[in-house]
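To start, one record:
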Amino acid sequence: MTYTPKSDFLATVQARGFIADCTDYQSLDEAMVKGVVPGYIGYDATAASLHVGHLMNIMLLRWFQKLGGKPITLMGGGTTKVGDPSFRSDERPLLDAQQIDANIDGMGRVFARYLDYGDSPSGALMLNNAEWLDGLNYLDFLRDIGRHFSVNRMLSFESVKSRLDREQSLSFLEFNYMILQAYDFLELNRRYGCLVQMGGSDQWGNIVNGIDLTRRVIDKQIYGLTTPLLTTSDGRKMGKSANGATWLNDQMMSPYEFWQFWRNTTDDDVGRFLKLYTELPLDECNRLGALGGSEINAAKIILANEVTMLLHGTEAAQTAEATAREVFENGGVGDDLPTLDLTAEEIGSGISIVQLMVRAGLVASGKEAKRLIADNGARLDDAPLTDAGLVLDAAALATPIKLSAGRKRHALVRLA
């Protein structure tokens, strides 16, 4: 990006690494300088929680609100019924209305940690596109909106083309998704004066469709801004851990596990993640990211504390750090470790150590647990665990035990 922004928002997010592309930097920048600009990101309700892969765009909305924008979190109550086919190899499973509503409730609790939904001019709005999509008349929609879309052009978008090039089926239902998302942008401009849609760079085609549709239907200029698709320095997709997604709802991942995810950041990612996921000044992010040797571990603790504090609060971050120190430095148990509570009935005449490791979430399968034990990577109460056939009864679990997978994953198992 060669354009030098004048608005605080674009200058800040450019410097911190949030921008992949923008449809018109200068015009959007001028609009941001003039006053409060409404802008949105859409989220389909495909799971009960958002995960770390969503966090960069949530932080973008947070900066947007702090620096002159009015953020709109658009829940896909309507579009979730169709499913975004972008860069997927198969069709998403269809959810019923009750599950979609439950997922929206779970996602809303996350947004409330990062955005202010108050009544100020920059107060955030949480909207649901089912409000206008559920009542559409199909024939009217085809005549008034569908006629503006070229199938030839839609087929040229990389998100669709990649699916077809692999000769993987793309249903007519999914093909409609990009038209519905474009219509969202048009409706948000009509109803709320929304001027910019933001999203990951995989959404570029959908965003451009909305801009083009709005120009054709109501002759309004609106903008798109995308963030880079983020991978870690070792090539993994951001947000994925050894045990699956890193969830943002504490019912699905404890604050300690969330904190530990960030503490385990690779050295090369620390500076970049501090810029994207915290509000520390840029100079401090650069200083911490440049530390080497054992000093980089202090920077990782700061990263973990800052990110956890934004999501779960200061007390949760402090407790997580204290637990980690007790577990790693002092060889103790710690009060905030993930805990598996078992009843005597569940244990019965005995339960295998392999099953305990799976149920505690330390491994994905019994096969993985056995391999870890064989490779001397498992520990029981900080002592090497060498017997994959070990069976524990209720008496053995009367005192909580600590299971470890490698040096960084730990859990307690106790009798409820």
In short: The mean pLDDT is 87. The first strand starts at residue 21 and ends at 22.
